[in-house]
Structures are given as C-alpha cells and as structure tokens.
Amino acid sequence: MVAITAEQKTAEIVNELKKTGLWKKQMPAWVTDYEEKRIANVSDFSEWLQFIYLPNCKGVSAMNKKKFIVPQAVKFFGEDVKKGRLLQLLIELDALT
Fold first, then answer.
1. Which contacts (CB < 8 Å, 24+ apart) does range 66-71 have?
2. Which of 2, 20, 58, 80 is the most buried (most CB within 10 A)?
3. Which residues contact 83 (CB under 8 A, 6 or more apart)?
C-alpha cells in the first residue's frame, strides 16, 4: 500500500477546484491583509482555501495543526451536491495533517 502525502492530496484538491470552476487565476487583493477579511460566502471561502489554507498546509504535521478545514468547508459547500468530491478530498487532507 502506497501512503498518500498531504502534498499529493493538496494537488488533488487543486484539480477539483479547477474542475468545479472555483479556481481563480489571480489572487484577490484582500489576500495580503486576510486577517481583516470576513469569509462570508462560497467565493470568499474558495479564495481563502486556494490562496491561504492550501499553501500553508504543506509540511504541517498533525501535531502542529490546530484546526481542521472540513467544518468550515461544510458550512460553505454542504448544500451543494456538486462539491461532494471536494468535501471528500478535504476530509482526506484533514486525516493526513
């Protein structure tokens, strides 16, 4: 059995974001000052996931990780059946980190 790494799972998530049309080509201006940003909708969450969470997720071990992404993802994607695969990948990433 081959172990999947967090980096591999992150790549799968990136592919799913692209497939579902949530992937942005340009970083929004708010990302450079994201502590002041209130995540209020799916678009905001997707941008936060792409530009903040996933890049910072690399190299984080379970011992260093304090929060899981799935509860936040369910809040924004839970009603959208099309995001089911993305939610599953995020569950798998949480299990790895």
1. 68/94, 69/93, 69/94, 70/94
2. 20
3. 20, 77
Q: What is the DSSP letter of 97?
A: -
Q: pTM for the complete prediction?
A: 0.77
Tens of pLDDT along 45-95?
999 899 988 988 766 554 455 678 888 888 888 777 677 888 899 988 888
CA 94 to chain centre: 10
Answer left, alpha or beta for residue 21, where phi above 0 means left and psi between -120 and 50 means alpha: left
Give CA–CA dist 59/57, Å, rounded.
6
Task: Give the distance, in angstroms, between the CA of residue 51 and the centroid of all CA atoms in the same chain.
Answer: 9
Are 67 and 39 spatial neighbours (Cβ–Cβ below 8 Å)?
Answer: no
